[in-house]
Write the structure tokens for this entry.
Amino acid sequence: MLTIGDLSRATGVKIPTIRYYEQMGLMAAAERSGGNQRRYESHDRERLSFIKHARDLGFTIEAIRELLELSAHPDRPCVDADEIAVRQLQSVRNKIAKLRLLEKELDRMTSRNHDDQVKHCYVLRSLANHDMCVSEH
Amino acid sequence: MLTIGDLSRATGVKIPTIRYYEQMGLMAAAERSGGNQRRYESHDRERLSFIKHARDLGFTIEAIRELLELSAHPDRPCVDADEIAVRQLQSVRNKIAKLRLLEKELDRMTSRNHDDQVKHCYVLRSLANHDMCVSEH
DNA sequence: CATAATAGCTATAGATACTGGAGGAACACA
DNA sequence: TGTGTTCCTCCAGTATCTATAGCTATTATG
Ligand SMILES: [Zn+2]
Ligand SMILES: [Zn+2]
Ligand SMILES: [Zn+2]
Ligand SMILES: [Zn+2]
């Protein structure tokens, strides 16, 4: 039997976050002690570790809900789970592509000499004028 | 004189967002028509374009507030503005680095044959077990 | 001028995924 | 029994919008 604090230390998920996951239905409502405190078992720890790992990889709560639901049916085909992961990979690649464009512009803006006054500042002039940018973003 | 709709079309910023920026103090409270509708001038359009451009580049509202404040003093040195931009560049590079790690793991997870059942699914097994990952994240 | 269509107003709530605090109760240990 | 740590619920706040409801103003047409 684990307290919520034990579970938190075991998984690295903060206590309010565990309660939040319960509220969101990702974790089942825990059993309670006589004094109304949550008590967990090892399968709860495994489930929460799964959730944390997926969150660390950027899956949304909704995606995780689906992945957990799928995990409950070991004999079904896993195409749905694979598709969710592929979508997540695409979303990550999209974000990287967008951030690369931003990096390029910010690098350009900041790579000039800046021993200057506000009225001549290349950073501020670039922000005021998107035409100075080399890409869409 | 521009209505809020004109300003929205001219800058690509949605109407509720313009009102939100006013509430946040990024845009000055607009003058009003007899019937209490907001009326803008071209300097408002320039200011809002600046805000939009900076938001598109990922600057926070707080950073933009500082940049706008700096812009109001043309004769001061611009080191503060440059520093804000450099910090933003670093933040973007940080995000890219983290996303690359996620991309690597997600690519590994999804690059197997998946003609399979849930109980053998490499995606689900990987999510259940961080030891299968090749990096921290 | 009357009416209709379009556009604007405020106030409030929702999305996303948590995080923190107040005020009080329970638990573990000596 | 006392003490210190942990836990409880409820509520508010973070960041940046976005959307709805219910109402009013402006503009265009006949
Ligand atoms: Zn500068
Ligand atoms: Zn630009
Ligand atoms: Zn699979
Ligand atoms: Zn991992």
Remarks:
- Residues 79-132 of chain B form one domain.
- The two ends of chain B are 52 Å apart (CA to CA).
